[in-house]
Each structure stands twice: as C-alpha cells, then as structure tokens.
Amino acid sequence: MKNLHSICLFLLLPVMSLLMSGCLRQSPPPDVVIGISKALPDEYYGNYARWLRMADSNIRCVDLYHMPIDSALALLETCSGLVLSGGPDVYPGLYGQEWDTVHCDPPDRFRDSLEWRLTEKALRLDMPLLGICRGLQLLNVYHGGSLYPDLPATFDSTVMHRCPDIHACMHDVQVLKRSGLFRTAGVNRGHVNSNHHQGIDRLGDGLLVVARSRDGLPEAIEYESAGQKPFFMAVQWHPERMDPGNPLSLPVAMYFVQEAKLYRMNKEE
To answer: How far apart are CA 182 and CA 252, in angstroms?
Structure first.
C-alpha cells in the first residue's frame, strides 16, 4: 500500500507542477470566430481566412455567403468580428445611379443585400468590422456615400488601380498620421496591391479618409470619432495578397483579430 501511494505521488508531481506554473489549463480557451461575407470557393476567396489565421492560428473563419440571409445573420451572432471581402462591383442603384451600369460587373444583388444586412447587424452589435476592396465600397455606400462606377472612364489618373496581373499590380499610398491605420502600420507611406476599377466618390457620413493614392483617391477609411466606437476600418487594397512583412498587410489583420478577442471577452463578461 505504501509503495502504491509513492507511485501515485510520483505520477502526480509533474501535473501539480504544471498546474502551479499555469502551463496546464483545465480547458482550452473558447474559439474566436470571424465571419467573412464571402470566403468560398477557396480558389478565389480562401486567402482571407489564411491571412487572418496568420495573425492567430487558433481563430475560426466561417463563410456567410452560401446560406439564406436569415441564417447568415443568426450565425453572425456567434462571431466576434466581421470581414466584408473583395468581389464584384456594388450595384450602382444602391447609391442612386441605377442608369450607370455600362462599365459594371453583372450585379450580385443577393450579395449586396447580404452584406448590407450583415453590416447593419454588426454595427448594432458593436462588433469589430473590417472591409477589403469591395468591402470598403459597400461600407461607404452604406453610410450614404457614392462611388465612381468606372475609374478609367470617370476619374482622371495615371495610377494603375487595376492590371491584367492582379498580383503584380501595386501602387503607393499616403497614410494619415492621426489614424488607427497609422498606429497599426507605423508608416505614413506604403506600397499596396490594387485590383479595382471603382472607388469612393462622395464620402459617407461620419467617415474619415485615412489613406490616399497619389492621385487623391481614397484608399482607406475609418470613423471620424474612432475612439468612441468599436473597431471599424476598410482598405481599398488587398492585404491578404501582400507579403505579410508589409506593414499594410499582416499588422491590419493582427489589429482586427485582437479587437475581435476583446469583443469576445467583453461579451462573455
């Protein structure tokens, strides 16, 4: 009996040591789930989730597109952040230019409606919100702004915002120093991947342009009163396609994911 007691104590000592040091937890931390407005098919949209998981490999990403809108809204309630991903043009009718569809992609009215409702709900939940490319454009329109339906036809510029090789299409942006983006990236100038032919014309209500290309086109937006509201940022470029070492790529994902974790913690409390 004495020998059995000694053996049990010998086996328990390493476990007790780990518990006392805090290295062994009773249960793993809950998943942080990020909703992506369109994350599939993987061939075209998989980079968004992979980019976010570079910031934290433990997060889970869910696609909100391939389901009814009511189901997507219900699933969003289980998430800690929302990403509006890139994709085809926002329907011009959403900003009062129904007639101006000559240069636009065929409209995806389901996606327009889905992302409109997701944005509405995320803002009501005070949920961190990140827009990328089309996502920036949708968020600007949601806040009462408008777009240039086709930059080559309506915006005089020598900057190449879209090229045949989407991965090699790059241009410079200037970052506003008094912005969350500047605090995140730590640079006031950078080089970004660009793949769009539309852009912000009239800025939405309550929004602030925090980065521009050298032709003056808005390249990133935040709230004017950012310190008083949940995380809200949108960029016109594609950080998920860029070198993670670029300060305008992975640091944006890290900032967003950190805000999603804080949202999860506050929600649990």
So the answer is: 10
- What are the distances in angstroms from CA 254 to CA 52, 108, 268? 8, 30, 21
Q: What is the CATH number of domain 31-268?
A: 3.40.50.880
Would the pLDDT of 134 be above 60? Answer: yes
Strand-strand pairing, 129-132 and 232-235: parallel
Instruction: Dump the DSSP string for 179-227.
Output: SHHHHHH--SEEEEE---S-EESSPPTTEEEEEEETT--EEEEEETTGG
Total-model pTM: 0.86
Element (H, E) at 235: strand 232-235
Cis bond before residue 92 (omega within 30° of 0): no
pLDDT per position as a tens digit, 181-217: 999 999 999 999 998 889 999 999 999 999 999 989 9
d(CA 31, CA 53): 12
- Terminal-to-terminal C-alpha distance of the chain: 47
CB 51 within 8 A of CB 248: no
Catalytic residues: 133, 238, 240
Q: What are phi and psi of 57, to 5 degrees?
A: -70, -10
Query: How many CB atoms are located within 10 Å of the residue 229 CB?
Result: 14
- To the nearest whole percent, how much of the chain has pLDDT over 90? 70
> What does the longest C-alpha to C-alpha distance in the chain come to?
89
Which residue has tokens 């827009």? Answer: 131
* Confidence (pLDDT) at 5: 46
Q: So what's the pLDDT on residue 234? A: 98
Give dist(CA 90, CA 131) in Å, integer: 13
Q: What is the DSSP letter of 258?
A: H
